[in-house]
Amino acid sequence: MIHPHPDAAIVIGILALQGAFIEHQDALQKISLQKKIEVIQVRTAEELAKCAALVIPGGESTTIALLARLSGLLEPLRQFVKTKPVWGTCAGAILLSKNVEGAKKGGQELLGGISITIARNGWGSQVESFEADLDVPLLRDPERPFTGIFIRAPVVLSLDTTPEDPPIKVISRLSPHYLPESLTSSNLTHEPKTFVALQQGLHFLTTFHPELTQDNRFHEYFVRECVLPSLPPPLQ
Ligand SMILES: NC(=O)CC[C@H](N)C(=O)O
Q1: Phi and psi based region of residue 28 (left: phi greater than 0; alpha: psi -120 to 50; beta: remaining)
Q2: Taking the domain 10-230, which CATH number applies?
Q3: Element (H, E) at 49
């Protein structure tokens, strides 16, 4: 393997087919870790090939998948997910899931990557969108809650890991009282439905929109815990 120069910037792509990709680009560019980060917008397989990691933004997962297919990106994205870190936010979280409920008629193209079943629009339509303070014990300044912005957000229905899969780590969960009646059940404390930020191996998933706040601690977490560990030495 040819090791990139230790001072080479880490190229992180933002899938820029549809949705809130500019906000992710702004948030990542504000991160000051020990490595330089170059953020590029990805619309082609050639641009994807330049990336060490990828963020799939919020938007409409069916539209993003359709545009990915039309632009010849769907298969390159599926291959990328097999070896490099990907963070999916909201619609991106749906695309990163192995299974989806509430998909559009005729089914929904997914990339896989995180072994969960997720429900599109789990809280309902736009009018059920909400904000919630999240506990973030693994982020910088853990005593400071993170404002989660949930816009027609998906809900994690189940963790479907097999013995061969990396374990799923819950990074942040929602207080059960935010769950809609339709999703509540007796044993809420360990319900996957309260899990709103998950990590599995190098992949990361948030069902809300960190990029719509001025708080880039989730962006820092993704780079520190998913991107840097995926790089060949001495870049780590
Ligand atoms: N804010 C969002 O990304 C919404 C996701 C959208 N409801 C979907 O199903 O893809």
Answers
A1: alpha
A2: 3.40.50.880
A3: helix 45-49
CA nearest to 159, candidates 195, 109, 120: 195
Catalytic residues: 90, 209, 211
ipTM of the prediction greater than 0.85, yes or no: yes
Q: Which has the closest alpha carbon to 198: 218, 176, 183? A: 218
pTM for the whole structure: 0.93
Domain edges within the chain: 10-230
**Residue among 55, 62, 100, 121 whose CB has most ligand 1 atoms within 8 A, to mutate:** 121
Q: For residues 150 and 111, what is the distance between their CA atoms, to the nearest angstrom?
A: 22
pLDDT tens, 33-43? 777 899 999 99
Q: How far apart are the first and last CA of the chain?
A: 15
Cα separation of 175 and 121, whole Å? Answer: 18
